[in-house]
Amino acid sequence: MSERVWNPIETAPVEEIKALQLARLIHNVYHVYNNVPYYRQRMDEAGVKPQDIQCLADLAKLPFTYKQDLRDTYPYGLFATPMTEVVELHASSGTTGKQIVAGYTQHDIDIWGDCAARAIVAAGGSPKSKVHVSYGYGLFTGGMGLHYGAQTLGAVAIPVSSGNTKRQVQILQDFESDILCCTPSYATYIGETLRDMGVKPEEIKLSAGILGAEPWTEDSRRNIEALLGIKAYDIYGLTEIIGPGVAYECSQQTGMHICEDHFLPEIIDPDTGEVLPEGTPGELVFTCITKEAFPLLRYRTRDIATLTREKCGCGRTLIKMTKPRGRTDDMLIIRGVNVFPSQIETVLFQTSQTSPHYLITVDRVNNTDTLEVQVEMTDDFQFDAVRLVEQKQHEIEAALQSTLGISPKVRLVSPKTIQRSEGKSKRVIDKRRLYE
Ligand code: ADP
Ligand code: ZN
Question: For the residues 173-183, what does the mean pLDDT come to?
């Protein structure tokens, strides 16, 4: 018995999905080749014509698209439809450098709404749901994506946007929303605010959270679930492909199903560009096969993940991706060692009296990289007991050293001193960039 799904394609036989993919891929390669001079030139240079794409494996013949291509053609150089057909624009929040612009036709918006609706249904939502959207509304895709999803489903979209966190709690209580959509960082902040206001999770009606747009750990999931009394589901997406809803978690919570009837995924070796077999971790690459206005071919996400077609207990047959551990450009290389901020979070969740709030500062002193981690302590930690403070510092330093393989300096800070995030959290200050 499979669980309820929004779109029948989610449980279609794999052969049917693949046939659909091929037809759509061929169609869209022609669309791009005929309408985007930049792509035509890149394909000509690579010696590949649209007619060379005859099976799904032929995808590997197409050139990659990099973020730099989007910057070089900023703002509209990769649009494949005239602006008269475009009904909406979004931009990436510019976390890593200059922003990029994505355009949508009405058809593209409809696809987006459908994908986000799948995510809401997978999280237990229905047309009866009230969906509280605390992702930021604006050029960032988070807000509008889940908004369209809720409306496509026939549920109620509540466009609260991010910010004014006490008011968020008030609205959750008064409007009786059952689904919360925001980043995991903001869900933590809302949960802490609920607790500080003396509101018990039972006093709100939330049953699920659809949380994404940034990497988060399983520990963080459990923390949010306890704070808000919900089941927390992951959702993945990026502006370049469509926004949130490229992939979403189901009841099994063992990876996210990719809307592969719209976005063809590949995993490649980031160094050689070679396509890797299923089950091998590598860089996630997407090809849009149904979008009209901004259909990227083989877009290099820089997110590291693994794909699997293993049968999922939910009954969906769409391929699954693992939670991305972070973008390759979020990864810090400190004294030659690769460090993901999430590894530090994992250690903090295993240490008593620490909160999951931390700030990493990387610097370079006398040609050597230094790593300092500020760790926020819980209310019951006694800062006036000097010996205890030192002991705790050393305990965390040793735990980080054994997890990361490099020794950091830990500084304990008082509760609520590390800035909370209403959107994507910023946990790293890399001062080395100043010298580059
Ligand atoms: P920006 O590029 O400015 O951060 P986007 O919102 O387009 O703006 O960011 C998309 C990126 O966010 C993805 O490439 C990925 O790195 C990250 N991301 C999105 N959802 C998730 C998720 N569920 N888990 C981990 N990372 C995520
Ligand atoms: Zn599933």
Answer: 98
Q: Of all atoms in ligand 1, which is nearest to the CA of residue 95?
A: 3
What distance in angstroms lies between residue 173's CA and the mean position of ligand 2's atoms? 31
User: For residue 312, which ligand has an atom nearest its CA?
Assistant: 2
- Pocket probe mutation, ligand 1, options 137, 181, 303, max atoms within 8 Å of Cβ: 303
Position 73 scores a pLDDT of 95
What type of residue is 181? Answer: C
> Are 129 and 149 contacting, i.e. CB atoms less than 8 angstroms apart?
no
Residue 18's SS3 state is helix
Amino acid in the structure at residue 292: E
**How close is the Cα of 135 to the center of ligand 2, in Å?**
24
Q: Helices marked H in 137-203 — which ranges? A: 141-153, 165-175, 184-196
* Per-residue model confidence (pLDDT) at position 2: 67
Q: Is the pTM of this model over 0.70?
A: yes
Query: Which of 188, 92, 90 lies closest to 134 in space, CA to CA?
Result: 188
**Contact status, residue 118 vs residue 146, Cβ threshold 8 Å:** no
Strand 208-212 relative to strand 243-249, pairing: unpaired
Nearest-atom number in ligand 1 for the CA of 247 is 23
Residue 435: pLDDT band (50, 70, 90) is: low
